[in-house]
Amino acid sequence: MAVRPQRIIAQTIKELTQLGRDRLSLTMALGLPLVLLLLFGFSTSLDVNRIDIAIQDLDNTRISREYIATFERTNKFHLAAQGPGVNVPQLLDRGGAAAGIIIPPEFSRDLKRQGRQAQVQVLIDGTDANTANLVRGYAKATTNAFSENLRSPSTATTPVTLQTRLWYNPGLETLKYIGPGALAITVTLFPALLAGLATAKESEQNTITQIYASSLTGTEYLLGKAAAFWLVGMAEVLFTNVESWIFFGLSFAGDPTPLIISSALYIACIVLWGIFLGTNTKTQSAVIQAVSFTAFLLSLQFSGYIYPIANIPIYIRWLAGIVPARYYILLTRDAYTRGVGWMSVWSSVLALAALLSFFFFLAWRRLRKMQVEV
User: Fold this and answer.
1) Contact 236, 190 (CB under 8 A)
2) Strand partners, 363
3) What angle in degrees, to the nearest 10, is found between the helix axes of 189-204 and 284-291?
4) Residue 137 belongs to what domain range?
5) What is the mean pLDDT of residues 192-210?
6) 142 — pLDDT class (breaks 50, 70, 90)
7) CA 57 to CA 167: how far, in whole Å?
8) pLDDT for residue 288 is more than 70
C-alpha cells in the first residue's frame, strides 16, 4: 500500500492539536529541559571549598596562632571552632566539622629547636572518600606554605609535619559513601510515582466523584491511600537494605533505630508528595513527569549524594532544605558508616517529621478543595 503524505501530515496536525490542548504536558515538555539545564549547570560542582574544620590549639602561642591564621586565609577552609578547649572528635561525631587539627603543647618549642620537627595531628571524616582525600591534600599544602615561611635556607627538613588519621572510614572505601546514599535515592521514585498515578487515575476515570459522594472523609481517604503505598515503600526499604547487605557487604555501624524511624518518615513524605502531585496534575502522563522531576532529579542533585551541598551556589541552595532525601542520606550514612547514632542525626529526624507534616497539609488541603469543587 502506498504511503500518502497528506495522511501523515493530517495525523501530525491531530497529535499537535491534542498536545496543545493539554497545556500542562506541553509546558512540561518545553519548560522542563530549560529548568533542568539551569539546575544541572548551577548545582553541579566537584570543587570542595569552605570545608568546616576545628582546631584544638594546645600550644596557644604566637606561632601556633599564625599557623591557624594560615588556614583562615585560604578559601578552602572555614574555621568552625578553635581554642584549647575544642573537642575535635566530638565535633566530628556531631557533624560540626569535616576535619580537625590538634596542635600539641610543644608545637612552638619544637619549631625553635634546631633540626627538630613539630608534628600536628589531622583527623579527617572519611565518610566521603573523595572529600577526605581533598581535605588531606589541602591541609598538607597549607601546612607546607606555613613551613616555607619558617624554613631557613640552611634547613633541609620541613619544620612542620602532619600525622593524618581518618575518622569512621579509615580504608576510604567508596562503597561506604556511595552505597548508603544509593539506598536513599533508589527508594525515592516509585512510592511517590505509584501514589501519584493512583490518584491521577481516579481523576481521569472520574471515580473520585464516587468517593466524595460516599461517607468517607477527605482525611480518611488521604490516610488510607497513603498507608497503602507507605507499606509498599517500606517493603522497598527492607528489600534494598537486605540486598545491600548480601551483595555489597553493607552492615550497620551503630544503633539502627534512627534509620528505622526515619525510613518510616521518609517514605511517608514522598508518598504524600506523590498524592499531592496526583491531585494537582490529574493526568497520569503529567504525574510521571512531575514526580520524575521533583521526587527523583531534585533528590539526586540537592541531597548531597554526589557532592556536598555546600558546593551548590547559595541562591539555589535553599532548595536542599525542602528535599527529604537530603536528611535521609545523612541518616543512612550515619547508620552504615559513622555509627554515631542519635547524637549526630536527631536534627535530621526532626526535619523529616516537619516535612511530613507540611506535605500532609498540602495534600489534605488540595483534597478538601477538590471535594468542595465537586
Assistant:
1) yes
2) none
3) 160
4) 51-167
5) 78
6) confident
7) 20
8) yes
Among 112, 140, 167, the domain-final residue is 167
Averaged pLDDT of the chain: 81
Run of H or E residues at 197: helix 189-204
Counting runs of H as helices and runs of E as strands, what totals does the chain give? 16, 5
How many domains in the chain?
Answer: 2
pLDDT tens-digit readout, 153-185: 545 456 787 888 877 776 667 677 778 888 888
144 and 287 share one domain = no
Find the helix packing angle between 218-248 and 342-373, rounded to 10°. Answer: 140
**pLDDT over threshold 90, residue 32:** no
Looking at per-residue pLDDT, the higher value among 176 and 138 belongs to 138
Residues 216 and 163 grouped into a single domain: no
Same domain, 212 and 355: yes
Residues 134 and 217 in one domain: no
Q: How far apart are CA 103 and CA 85, in angstroms?
A: 12
Q: Pick from 145, 167, 189: which residue ends a domain? A: 167
Is 41 part of a structural domain of the chain? no
What one-character-per-residue DSSP string does 291-352 give?
HIIIIIIHHHHHSSSSS-GGGS-HHHHGGGGG-HHHHHHHHHHIIIII---HHHHHHHHHHH
Q: 153 — phi, psi (to 5°)?
A: -60, -30
Q: What is the pLDDT at residue 106?
A: 86
163: which strand partners?
121
Handedness of CA 340, 343, 345, 349 (dihedral sign): positive
d(CA 251, CA 256): 10
> Tell me, what CATH number does 63's domain have?
3.40.1710.10
Strand 99-103 vs strand 77-83: parallel, antiparallel, or unpaired? Answer: unpaired
Q: What is the pTM of this model?
A: 0.75
Is 32 among the domain residues? Answer: no
| 19 occurs within a structural domain | no
- Most confidently modeled of 29-43, 210-224, 333-347? 333-347
Q: Do residues 310 and 224 share a domain?
A: yes
DSSP-derived secondary structure letter, 114: T
Q: Which residues make beta-bridge pairs with 82?
A: 55
Within this chain, do residues 97 and 224 fall inside the same structural domain, yes or no? no
